[in-house]
Fold Extracellular solute-binding protein.
Amino acid sequence: MKRLATLAATGLVASLALSACSSSKSSGGSSANNTAAGGDSSKPVTISLLAPSYGSSDKDDTKLYWQQIINDFQAKNPNIKVDLQMATWDNLATKLTTAIQNNDAPDLFEGGGYADVAAQGLLYKASDIVSADTLKNLIPHVAELGQTKGADGQTAQYGIPFTTSTRAFFYNTDLFKQAGITDAPKTWADVAADAAKIKALGKTGFGLPLGSEEAQAETYLWTLGNGGGYKDASGKWAINSPQNVQTFQWLTDNLVKPGLTESDPATKKRTDLWKDFAAGNIGMINGSPALIPILKQGTIGDNWKSVAIPGNTGPLASPLGVADFIEAFNTKKDHKAAVSKFLDFALQKQYQEQFDNEYYLLPATQDAAAELSTQTPALKPFIDALPSAAWYPSSDPQWDPTSQKIKDIVGKAVSSDPKGVLDQIQAVANGS
């Protein structure tokens, strides 16, 4: 999913002539086709869904979101039960890996990458599991991010995008005013200088989450800011490139060692630092639109702004874009018809809008994007950033193990030899 995907603005607001999920289509196509391809949908069946929690509160509101869809679906399809399994982002990948190893993969998984399991022949192609109307309703360039080579060596769409987001740089305007900072930072040098002034106020200058929750995102943002990234222009893995090593050395020397971040960034989770920022304890942090609801719950009030992410020599022209996917496992062939019905139902406009309004994320479907772009102004800057976003290399089968290795050890790169740490991650990317 790396390539600097051009997400055309027109694609975000385009309207469909046909409804993606009319009442006659929301059950996943004709019953005759589904019966032939994956069992008799009139017989009782239980399918499983493994999904992460996007919420930041003690209440597991993502579970409530999925449960509402399941309840609505089961009311119309009483012979199909859906077993919902929730996970945190910390243990989501482990849960899935363990399930696959135990020959008990969920029928549906919603989360990050998909290419490694597609390469093993474990997934249905999107065109085999959702209706044509649902596929047409996906934002085209986001749908392309779900393409990879399957076990047959042919490129096809296996990942079905569920939600998207981009990243921005958030800062506390009240702390900036107290510190005498008049302009938002544009370069790394600006960030370091501003962080030192905020530290003088007794606050943390910059929040640097390099712990297990989402270190792959923070890493990508900083390496992009120095002309680096996860792959080079030729498509080869370049995690231990000189630019990336220099990036972590700069973080070590200019933010971590001077005490301008929280202590030991390797142990810090994104959500915890977002909450600290919302409580007014951190001056600056990278964030997604999902940070906005947390800010509303915090004491920071309206004393914040978001701008383009500072890079080494200037703001990033291509900030990180993230797409989370649904993938359908083909290990239980007799569940296919039921899975198809549920997917078409769950990707309806009303549920996409509900999810994105709750978490301030961006939809993956055209009809929901068209409405949200005008109804939710706070999302507009993030939607505007999508056309130039840089995406994870999710279409590479090595991305999932590489991403996990980044989460496991990249935090050590700001407390030890950065090249040695990045070399270890590069080895995983290379399949070693």
